[in-house]
Design a protein that fits this description.
- By secondary structure, the chain is of the alpha/beta class.
- It has a single domain, classed as Maf protein, CATH 3.90.950.
- It has 7 helices and 7 strands; from the N terminus they run E-H-E-H-H-E-E-H-E-E-H-E-H-H.
- Strands 1, 2, 3, 4, 5, 6 and 7 form a 7-stranded mixed β-sheet that branches.
- Helix 4 packs antiparallel against helix 5.
- The protein is globular.
Amino acid sequence: MRLYLASTSPARLALLRAAGIEPVLINPDVDEARVVAETEAAAGTPLAPRELVLLLARAKAEAAASALLTEPLNGLLLGGDSVFVLDGVIYGKPHTAEAARERWERQRGRTGTLYSGHWLIELTAGVPSSAVGAVAVAEVTFADDLDDAELDAYIATGEPLYVAGAFTIDSLGAPFIMSIVGDPSTVVGLSLPTLRRLVRGLGHEWPTLWNRPGALEL
């Protein structure tokens, strides 16, 4: 069973590879701001974190599926999205050093919640035949002794500018995370246990996705 990943995230790719899966990468090319704005305008109310990440995960998966309609492919196509919530405020990627520093000054020594949305589509001869979705949640507690020099050095690397919540647990940001309650891979942006449940929900077994060299020899 082939897995298609509607994402260009290096972290999601590395996570799947470590789990024995070499996905086919597809750039979903979704205007996230427009999708959210149109949905909130239609609903007349802001989206809750769970609704937001599931909406964008589905939008990415469906955009990638549309791009593959001309190819008679069989397999599973995954879209994902993540946001970080602190004090009821939803944070995506900060994009600038100033925004990243402001967020870290608020969150160091505190606990926030990471929401990761998943939308899995089954492709049969290139046509979506069924789909399932789910949201995984994890609580993240940050170090309370992170000083300004460490924070400046971390922001200068550029890493926190392009990840939800301005932090990682699988790279340079890991030493600044004190604890995680929930599935750690959720914080990376793709919950492996959640994906497994979705795969099984579509009638497939998780081991059928293993396709990396050595995965079947474990």
